[in-house]
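Working notes for the structural subgroup meeting. M.R. asked for a predicted model of this chain before we commit to crystallization trials. I am recording the input and output together here so anyone reviewing the notebook later can reproduce the run.

Input as submitted:
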Amino acid sequence: MEEPSPIHIFNQTRSQVVAERAELARSFLSRGLGLMGRTDLPKGYALIIYPEWSIHTFFMRIPIDVIFVDKTDCVVGLREAMPPNRPFAGVAPWRGHYVIELPVGVLHSTDTRIGDQLTVTPHP
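Returned structure, recorded in token form:
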């Protein structure tokens, strides 16, 4: 069986690659597990939780950068270096459509901001 193509995330507004290799968490189980138990995230990696508008970091071991995205792939919320074991972080349900979890430092290095337009290829 052939592996699915890696998902690529590009910030069109800033002309920056956000992630070269993203995974998609779409099932109930994969969305619930998220990044729990991982001790690090490789450079260029992201987890897309789809559909979703909120997250928590309970039972996680590492801080993460988080992007909340609407149905038009526009950034509607950000959390930089969200620490482990934190309750709810999110955006209004009518605004958020999916969440991108990233290694700490990606938001800063890509200068990603609210209002930026993303391109996700292939789209979830």
